[in-house]
Design a protein that fits this description.
Two copies of one chain form a homodimer. By secondary structure, chain A is of the alpha+beta class. Chain A is built from 14 helices and 16 strands. Chain A has helices at 2-5, 9-17, 67-72, 121-126, 135-157, 204-214, 250-271, 273-283, 287-296, 304-316, 334-344, 395-405, 412-416, 432-440, and strands at residues 26-38, 42-48, 56-61, 78-87, 95-106, 161-162, 168-169, 181-183, 197-199, 216-224, 237-246, 300-303, 349-355, 371-379, 383-390, 425-431. In chain A, the strands form three sheets. Chain A has an eight-stranded mixed beta sheet with strand order 6-10-11-16-15-14-13-12. A five-stranded mixed barrel of chain A has the order 1-2-3-5-4. In chain A, α5 (135-157) crosses α7, α5 (135-157) packs across α8 and α5 crosses α14 (432-440). The longest helix of chain A has 23 residues, at 135-157. The interface between A and B is large, with 114 and 114 residues. β8 (181-183) of chain A pairs antiparallel with β8 of chain B.
Chain lengths: 460, 460
């Protein structure tokens, strides 16, 4: 069926947009039926092959030799249609197909769980293998695809090397998260690798080894957390983007983050117009304006200390946070971050130079010996969206930190990177799925992943 | 240091290639020292920041105020050099830097394990965190990066949707491979997810659910096998590419595979010229010709049955295989595959219509009820490099197969895809790491992965 395959719905729309679609052209198309209604003499089928967000309409009449077959076409079934293109500039849809022949390629059983009536996201989660056919998820996964490619495109255009850091590891990068164990034999879990193995929580440490050989690198792959958190924002398995740059300080890092965020959002707005309009109308009113504000802002830079002072002053002036106990050294909560970016800066802002006690062991300690060269990017309606830092390149300082941390023995190789031509370097990390939530306005991480993995949930 | 960062070694070479590099320009560069020798009055430093395969040469003389500092620069250390560009059209390298100032950004300890003298790949595996700095691995990982991007580019240009299928799963796609168990508590392994969990061996089944919503999709992510195989070609963790296409039969599948293989190899040959010359000269003589043969061939198509007859005839005519017992129904070994592609076809060939008994349960049974619509792509000097098939779209036939297989209960959702608008669809899979071995000529899968995962090996 090679010839028919070449004409996807997207290609048909593209040729319309390019003004190359001609009235009267004979074509054959495949797709799945979204609706079929008729009044006894004229009928309309909406169908879609998933290559483009909009449906194509087929009109069939009693005059068609296949009229009976057309009337029998069921919601959800796969069909092949042959017919003639009719340009309809006066109608809602710019063209339609005058249907002449129809072949039912795959019927759809009566108990089809994905019904036309509006269903809840919760229900759809339970039929995760069918929900990609629902409108919202057509949009979500198409934006997901565009966003993933934009990530690669940005870094490739800048000469970064893509590194697939390992998933199975004996290291625990953050020294914090609960990890999943990996073994081939539950009774002898250490036997296969000769040591205990777990799923990675971050590719950063491995990426640093590559940055010190290739200058600019990035990872983009799955990471895991065995956290028993049943929130809208926690998943056990999620994709992370972790760039790492040698000869780069915190300023270089922030410049790269800013360019990156603007690039990928612009890419999605340009390449997923229909989908973003859908999100703007039905999922988060104003999401497009929210994203355009980010693209058009110069990202401000503010110290953590200044942020704390602003928050304290706001409390003194009567502002009520859920947590009103603001002090230097605290971990900011989402409400505090959002207040700074939404009310004070009214745009994206990097908070930098955090207290060393609340940040990871590998971050570079500043000259004040109290703060580290970290930068968290805060954006309106979200709070923190990217976390980065300059890494400690001094062997002795990092060694002391790792002794405290107790990971000097297992991560000796990581420490040694500072001994053999180590140099200043910086990097950042962001969760791809949460970024997608921010861009689409979807409220639950389970609804932006192809098959979400959360505690108690592993049906597919 | 933002300004210096913008000038990578690659950019310098690019501006030379674009004929924009001017003699006398003052520049500042960073990189790692590959060698430093001097005769007491003139010295030469070779260095490289990892952004381009070739080193840059710095010349320093007694006249330089920093002469003493230059002489002290050690192999392996990170430096920043300021100097003047000198075009040297009569020399081996087309330009050099007349060094004026040097700053040692990161010293290199005397016990640096990566010494200049030629070391074995086996030794380098043991210092996996440093080997990206070695010539061979600079080339390997840069080709790996280009190849990964080529994969995305090919599918994105054709409208395929990238799906990140899950790593943690309760399904076992092939029903064959040994799987890694995943749990948060080794004593209660099923508690976290409420069922036993393992690492995926293939994203295909999940990709099929997406193909039946988006028409053309692909996965590109890690997969796992807990096989205790200590061969050059087996790893516990490796990246797979698994495209899946709705409304596509076996012919469409082969057309796509052929276009894909030609595209990604061409991309690497065009974008990694220096690296491929290196492999051609030092790793596999003739590897470029091997790849060009693939690009320039029309891929033949031959049935398994015909392949068996050819092999039998060759044995009758005196050809000696290690396994000379050729019979219809056997699984072909590498020597048989290579004989067909190298000696008979003298180029790439699809072997199709394999006995159903030796292929996976989800493949479409042909009208003869003996063979399935599978296609394995065989290439010279390798054997099988891609495996694909049309999938069984008939509910009853697949159900019968799954009953035999005993996976009807756990994969009921997969079976149901045939009930709700299922249609003919096809797909293929290939191991990214083995593809990279084939393209570079590297002989051990451990040497093409950033940090290889094999039984007994989990140091990093």
């Amino acid at each position: 069926m090679s010839q028919e395959r070449s004409l996807t719905n997207r290609k048909l729309f593209n040729s319309y947009f390019d003004k190359k679609l001609e009235d009267g052209t004979k074509i054959t198309l495949e797709g799945w039926v979204r609706s079929n209604r008729n009044n006894g003499s004229v009928g309309f089928i909406e169908f879609n092959d998933g290559s483009y967000f909009k449906n194509i309409q087929i009109v069939y009449t009693k005059e068609s030799a296949h009229y009976e077959e057309f009337t029998k076409v069921k919601y959800g079934s796969a069909i092949q249609v042959s017919g003639t293109i009719r340009l309809t500039p006066e109608m809602k849809q710019p063209f339609e197909i005058q249907g002449e022949e129809v072949i039912i390629l795959g019927d759809c059983a009566e108990d089809y769980p994905l019904q036309k009536k509006k269903t809840s996201f919760e229900f759809l989660r339970d039929i995760a293998y069918l929900r990609p056919r629902a409108n919202t998820f057509q949009a979500v996964y198409r934006v997901r695809n565009a966003l993933a490619f934009a990530v690669h495109k940005f870094f490739q255009e800048r000469g970064f090397i893509y590194v697939q850091t390992p998933e199975i590891t004996s290291n625990d990068a953050e020294g914090a998260g609960q990890v999943f164990h990996v073994c081939s034999d539950l009774k002898h879990p250490d036997e296969f690798f000769g040591t205990s193995a777990s799923l990675t929580v971050s590719g950063q440490l491995h990426a640093e080894a590559f940055a010190l050989a290739f200058r600019d690198v990035y990872t983009f792959g799955p990471t895991f957390r065995a956290e028993n958190s049943n929130t809208n924002r926690h998943a056990c398995e999620f994709w992370m983007i972790e760039p790492e740059m040698a000869f780069a300080d915190l300023e270089d890092n922030m410049d790269t983050i800013e360019a990156f965020i603007k690039y990928i959002i612009s890419y999605v707005l340009e390449n997923c117009k229909e989908e973003m309009n859908f999100f703007n109308n039905f999922i988060e009113k104003g999401v497009i304006d929210k994203l355009k504000l980010v693209i058009n802002s110069d990202f401000r830079r503010m110290t953590y200390t200044e942020g704390i002072e602003i928050l304290q002053k706001s409390v003194q002036n009567g502002h009520k946070f859920e947590n009103n106990d603001i002090f230097w050294g605290m971990d900011l909560q989402s409400e505090h971050e959002r207040f700074i970016t939404e009310e004070i800066v009214k745009g994206p802002v990097f908070l930098i130079d955090y207290p060393k006690e609340i940040k990871a062991f590998y971050m570079k300690v500043n000259a004040d010996n109290k703060t580290v060269a970290a930068c968290d990017l805060l954006v309106p309606k979200e709070g923190e969206i990217v976390g980065g830092s300059q890494r400690e390149e001094n062997f002795e300082k990092l060694q002391a930190k790792m002794k405290e941390q107790g990971n000097e023995a297992t991560l000796d190789w990581y420490l040694n990177l500072r001994k053999y031509g180590g140099c200043i370097h910086s990097g950042f990390g962001l969760g791809f799925d949460r970024l997608l939530m921010y861009i689409t306005g979807m409220q639950n991480i389970r609804d932006v992943q192809p098959f979400g993995r959360t505690p108690g949930s592993l049906k597919y």
